[in-house]
Amino acid sequence: MEAILYLLKRHYINKIKRAFSSVVSTIITVVAVFGLGSSFVLSFIAKRQAADGVFSETIMAGIILLIGVILYNSFLSRDTGILTMADANFLFSGPFEKRTVLAYILISTAPVSVLTALFICFYFPYILGAALTVPKFIVVLLVISLLFGCIYLSYYYFYILDIEKPGFKKNARIIFLTLIGVLVLVFVVLFIITSFDLKQTSQRLFTHYLYNLFPLFGWAKWAISSLLTENILFGFIPAVALLVFVNVILCIALYNTKTDFYEKTLEDSINLQKLLDDKKANGNVDVRSVAKLKKKASNVEFSLGAGAIYSRQKLESNKLSLGARYRELYMGLIYLAFGVIFGLDFYFVMMMIGFSSLTMSLNDSWHREFKKPYVFLIPASSFSKLIVSILPGLTKTLISGVISITIAGLVYKLEPVNLIGYLLIFASFVVLFIFAEVLTYRMIGPSANAVAVTFMRMCFALATFIPAIVVIVVVSFVLNDIPNMLVTAACLLLTNLLTSTLLAFLSRGIFENSEIMD
C-alpha cells in the first residue's frame, strides 16, 4: 500500500514539475494561476446581489445534468480505459495483489472527482450570487465531488464486469438512456402543459420536489439547493447521505470484484496513452480518437493530388457517428436552449455558439495532417495541400455555426439584415481563427509542448483580431457615428479575409519538413 500511495504522490508532483519545465510553461502557469485565482477571489469579494432562487436552482440543475449525461454517455459508449499505460505496467508487473490494484483505482478516484467538480463549481459564485459564501462553496464542491465519484466508480465497476459478462456495459447504457428518456418525456409533457413556454417548463421540472429523487443528478441539486436555503435537516442531509451511500456501495463492490481484468485493461491502456500523448504534443485530441467509428463501408470519390487529402478526410468523417460528426451543431442548439430558458440576450448566445465552434474546431482531424510524412510525397504545392487539408474542418465548423446562429436568429426574431450581418461576422472570424491556428504550427513546429502551443495560439488569435478592430474604429471615426450592421459586417469580413490570406501565405511551407516529422 505504501508503494501505491507513493505512486499517486509522484504522479501529481510530476504534473506540477511539468508545468514549470520551461520558461514558457512557467510563464503560462503563473499567468493562468494568477488569472483564474484572481477571478475566483473577485467573484466572492465583489458586491453581489442574491440571485433569484428559482433561476439559480434551474440553471444549476441544468448544468449538473448536462455535464453528467455527456460524461456518463461517453464512458458507457466506448472503452476509454481505466489506467494509463505507465500505471498499468507498474501495477501489473509489480508484486501487487488484485485488491491492491483496485485500491489504487479507488484512491485515485478522489482527486480526479475533486478536480472535475472544481471545473464545474468555478462558475457557481457568478450564478448563485451572494447566497454562495466561501464556506458554502467548499460544501458545494464536496457535494459535486461525491456526484462525480459515483460516476467514475460506476464506470470502473461496469468496465470490469463487462469483461466477465460481455454486454453488461451496453445494458447499463440502455438503462441510463431509458432514465434520461423518461426525464425528457416528462419535460415534453410539461412543455405542452405550459403552452410551449421553455423557461417555465424548465423551472417547473428542475424545481419540483420529485426531481430531487432522480438518481445522482437530482440528489446533487437537492443537496445544493437545500444548503442555500438552509434546509439542512430535511434536504441537505438526506441528499448527501444518498450520494455517500452510493459511493460506499460502489467502493465495496469494486474492491471485492473477482474478475480478471489485467489483459483488457492493459490493452485499453495503450489506446488511452495514445490519446494522452496526442493531447500532450498538440494541445488537443483528434475527435476520431475518442469517437465511436462505424464499421460499414463508405463510398467516397477519391481525387488526385492535393484533393486526395480532402477525400481521405471525407472518408474518415463518414466513419464517425452522427453525434461526433455534428457535435458543434448539437452544442450550438444546447447553448440556444440555455439562452432561451434563462432569458439571455441574443448577443450572449451568439458569443457562446461562436466560442464553442472555435474551441471544438481545435479537435478537427486537420491538425494531424501536419505530422503525416507521406503528405510530403503528394505531387502538389505545399500551399494547395495546406488549403485542402483544412477545408473539410473549416466547412463543417462554418455550416454548423451558421445553422445554429440562423435558428437562434429566428427564435429571437431578428431582422433579416441583422441576421445576415451576424452570420458574415461569424464566418469571417472562423476563417481567421483557423488560419491563426495553422500559423502556430508553422512557427512553433512539432516538437513544442502543449503549453507553448496554447500560449502561441492565444497570442496569434488575439493579434489577428486587431486589424478588424482598427478598421471598425477608423470607419466609425470617418462616419462620425457607429456603422450599421451591414457596414460593420462588410468591414470585418473584408479585413478578416485579407488577414486570413496573409496568414495562409505565411503558413504555406508547413508541409516542407513533414517528411522528417514524427
From TrEMBL:
Protein name: Putative ABC exporter domain-containing protein
Pfam families: ABC_export
Domain of life, per lineage: Bacteria
